[in-house]
Structure to design on (324 residues):
């Protein structure tokens, strides 16, 4: 129960930040891909910079997680094709409907019901990947 | 109070998103939203048909709770923390969108032309949202992550695969925004 509250709180803050920064906005994504505003680039860059500094602090000081266990952040699998091709597909969808998976859920929670169609599509897309996985280059 | 209602600055927002990722690492987890789509497929019983969905989704329940929290956060932010000054985008963007028949934000997060209830009467509009969703779901699982898993988590941990994925995201996004979207929406 205590765990549920922690994750709910982290998610709650995430939902508020993504909405108030307008990263969930179709307009902001369109504007970003047309290089007409620094806003989204600023958000992503500062998030990564904060993450790099935080992870370096964790690694160099051997900081333990909440359960007292050492923090291991697994490396991403080696490879190229899956990242380039999968990334390309993802980007096409991101720029079309202006939301990535987090914002899909956030917009739904906020009451934009037509986003249910996007969520349904995203589940179909995930299913298609599962179905075709063994036939795709990775 | 204005600070709450107006658009949050990129530096505060970016910092908070980085801290959210670090908080999940501290809780012994990782930041990645698209994994939840796989969990939902598994919950729907698709593991019986496709091995990829035959995994212990219950171990990922914490992430579904994060999503639930995010939905609540979106609800609170839109209904209690917004005002008409929001989504002030570049005037050049607005006139460009007007030429495509897409309404200006005027405080809205998403255009009515693409997300309003009236789109339910247009098979083409439904198709646009559906295809967009399919590309997002397929692409994020193929690439093994989305904006949260690769752009934020992966790049923060200096992962070359994530850099490839993020460059892929941008190539795809630029192709859509500049070449395909004008053809699709017109």
């Amino acid at each position: 129960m205590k765990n549920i509250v922690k994750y709910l709180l982290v998610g709650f803050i995430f939902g508020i930040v993504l909405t108030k920064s307008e990263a969930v906005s179709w307009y902001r994504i369109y504007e970003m891909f047309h290089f007409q505003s620094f806003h989204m680039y600023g958000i992503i860059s500062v998030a990564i910079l904060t993450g790099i500094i935080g992870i370096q602090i964790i690694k160099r000081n051997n900081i333990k997680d909440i359960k007292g266990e050492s923090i291991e952040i697994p490396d991403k699998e080696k490879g190229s094709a899956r990242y380039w091709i999968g990334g390309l597909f993802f980007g096409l969808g991101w720029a079309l409907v202006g939301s990535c998976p987090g914002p899909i859920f956030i917009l739904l929670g906020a009451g934009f019901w037509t986003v249910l169609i996007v969520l349904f599509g995203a589940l179909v897309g995930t299913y298609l990947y599962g179905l075709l996985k063994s036939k795709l280059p990775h | 109070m204005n600070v709450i209602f107006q658009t949050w600055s990129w530096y505060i927002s970016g910092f908070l998103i980085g801290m959210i990722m670090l908080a999940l690492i501290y809780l012994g987890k990782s930041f990645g939203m698209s994994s939840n789509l796989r969990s939902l497929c598994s919950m729907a019983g698709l593991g019986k048909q496709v091995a990829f969905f035959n995994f212990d989704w219950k171990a990922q329940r914490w992430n579904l709770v994060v999503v639930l929290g995010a939905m609540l956060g979106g609800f609170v932010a839109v209904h209690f923390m917004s005002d008409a000054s929001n989504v002030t985008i570049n005037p050049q963007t607005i006139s460009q969108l007007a030429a495509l028949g897409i309404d200006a934000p005027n405080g809205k997060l998403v255009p009515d032309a693409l997300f309003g209830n009236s789109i339910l009467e247009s098979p083409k509009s439904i198709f646009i949202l559906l295809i967009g969703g399919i590309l997002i779901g397929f692409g994020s699982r193929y690439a093994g992550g989305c904006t949260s898993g690769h752009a934020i988590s992966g790049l923060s941990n200096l992962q070359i695969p994530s850099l490839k994925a993020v460059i892929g995201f941008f190539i795809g996004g630029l192709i859509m925004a500049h070449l395909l979207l004008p053809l699709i929406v017109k």
Notes: Residues 2-37+75-135 of chain A form one domain. The radius of gyration of chain A is 18 Å. The helical segments of chain A are 2-20, 26-33, 39-60, 81-97, 101-110, 115-132.
